[in-house]
Amino acid sequence: MAKTAVYPGSFDPVTMGHMDLIVRTAGIFDQMVVAVLINSEKKSPLFSLDERVIMLKDACKNIPNVSVECFEGLLVDFVRSKGDAVIIRGLRELMDFEMELQMAQVNRIASGEGGEGIETLFLPTDPKYSHISSSVVREYARYRVPLKDFVPENVLKTMMEKGIVTSTKED
Question: pTM value?
Fold first, then answer.
């Protein structure tokens, strides 16, 4: 079995759902790489790449077998560079499965001849986080909805420092 897991995403921003998957995956694999996508096509990210990496490193600082790295280009090339590794994807709902299954199949074919490519493992999201996504957090922040249950404390602090949210309390 692969000893390294790669969890890719834009993490703009990292959510409690992301953290749940990171903690659970880190408990299964020897090493885990949280791979932050450098996505030049995303026109208006909430946070810069550096900010996302800093927030993820801070959020993961107490998980010794987790590292945070950036990547650009094909995910399969990045995963291949990690040696014997698998891709981790979280599933919140049925629609996620349809999209993620297609990507997993394409990645497996693209990464190896004869169907011997990189594997993808799906983890269902904890039901208490199934409603949370980075896009929901960005939208709620826009309308000043309290986010303390949606993002890690360090992310909320950064959002407050940037003036993205104004309060940590439920009003």
Answer: 0.89
Strands (E), the chain: 4-9, 31-37, 66-71, 85-91, 120-124
Catalytic residue among 3, 42, 131, 144: 42
Quick: pLDDT tens for 135-150: 999 888 888 888 989 9
Q: Work out whether strand 85-91 and strand 4-9 pair parallel, antiparallel, or are unpaired.
A: parallel
Residue 66 Rama label (left phi>0; alpha psi -120 to 50; beta): beta
**What CA–CA distance (Å, rounded) separates 170 from 26?**
32
Any catalytic annotation for residue 52?
no
- The single-letter DSSP state of residue 63 is -
Q: When comparing pLDDT for 114 and 116, which is higher?
A: 116
Q: Is 92 a catalytic residue?
A: yes
Phi, psi of 169 (to 5 degrees): -100, 150
Which are the contacts of 96, defined by CB distance < 8 A and separation ≥ 6?
A: 90
Least confident of 27-36, 39-48, 137-146: 39-48
Q: Which of 92, 108, 148, 157 is catalytic?
A: 92
Instruction: Tell me if residue 42 is catalytic.
Output: yes
Task: List the structure tokens of 155.
Answer: 């992310």
